[in-house]
Amino acid sequence: MSIAKKNHADYSDFNEFTSRDDTFDMLLMSYESLCEGQRDWVCNLSNAASLLWHAYKSLNVEVNWAGFYIVRDCKPTELLLGPFQGKVACQSIPFGQGVCGAAAETQMTQVVSDVGKFSGHIACDGDTKSEIVVPIISEDGKTTGVIDLDCGDFNGFGESDKIYLERLAQLITKTCDFN
Length: 179
Description:
alpha+beta; six-stranded antiparallel beta sheet
């Protein structure tokens, strides 16, 4: 698989890949390439949100939101809206509330096949049927944010998504300065 790209926008083209695993491999390689020489979390997560959006769209997964919530030092137990693709969203989510808050508090990936059955689900978009949220954990063990993806279909995410999004979270920890 080649990562040679002429233009930054070329990284958003996932149409040549037919399998979910190939698409996710390319997403991770593209993210690493785009972050080369850049440690600013806003820049890197903005590109990551776009990569996620375009990767899932190329797989015909009905993703209706792809982005990040970030923990800021001034509010260490609250997630604040970060870079994303999709409709407008909740601006802040306390740890322990909703799928994002559960992932942040437990530091465990939450794969929810039916958000209607998740106690305390926060419905930013009533069209969302399933969700996956992956915590981003700093090297010193603190939650620094979450990757959040919403889908308009039930069972939109599975084990493969979990594995690759957890790898992305690890890359984010290594490539972003959140201070």
